[in-house]
Amino acid sequence: MSRLRRSAWLVVPIAAYFAITVLLPAANGAAHRAEFVKHVVLVVLGCAAVFVVACAIAWLGPKGDRP
Amino acid sequence: MQVGAIAVTAVVVVFGKQFYRAATADELQWLLAPVAKLVGWMTGARFAYDAELGWVSRDARFVIAPVCAGLNFALAAFLALSLGWLPAMRRARDAAARLLGAAVIAYAATIVVDSLRIALALETRADGAAHEALGVVVYLGALCALYALVVRGRRQHVAAA
Known about the structure:
The complex is a heterodimer of chains A (67) and B (161).
Chain A: H1 2-5, H2 11-27, H3 34-60
Helix pairs in contact in A: 2-3
Chain B: H1 2-22, H2 29-43, E1 48-50, E2 54-57, E3 62-64, H3 71-84, H4 92-124, H5 129-160
């Protein structure tokens, strides 16, 4: 579990990216456009993929507080 | 002071997004010009400026349009670095220096990462959803790497000192 906890820092850059590319455009009225929905799906999948890869690297890496 | 830094960051991000919505190629030259030069250096394609389209390579049949300027990445990088450095922004002077540093690093990183993304798109000829997916992976991967390098790297350096 401590290995996975080492990936918690990813929340900041992923949340920043999500806010800029999804939340702000949605707040500006983009949410009703069909192409925006496709964009959101791609961003969510991308965020999940990056998080999974980072967790896998942390899991396979040496045990400890910091890599 | 941290509340003030958050307010400044929010204002920059919101106004940056509003600016990007309607910005022309001329207004984005500070991003597009260095990106076009770097992409040309990476790929060998020659780009010429067109005030309506952006930077155009007739031989490579490729346009670096205002929407390709990477300002979303710049804003995301500025936001992430500002949030990451928030614990160190206890005094006004520290906050100003960190925010300025975040802006400079975000700008420099945008030139490099956006050029890499466009060079990859040019070489792979990815279009439609593939082009967008390439952008998400490159931008997000680079943003996480930048954050790890700058914010976490600095924390480890301070902890070791």
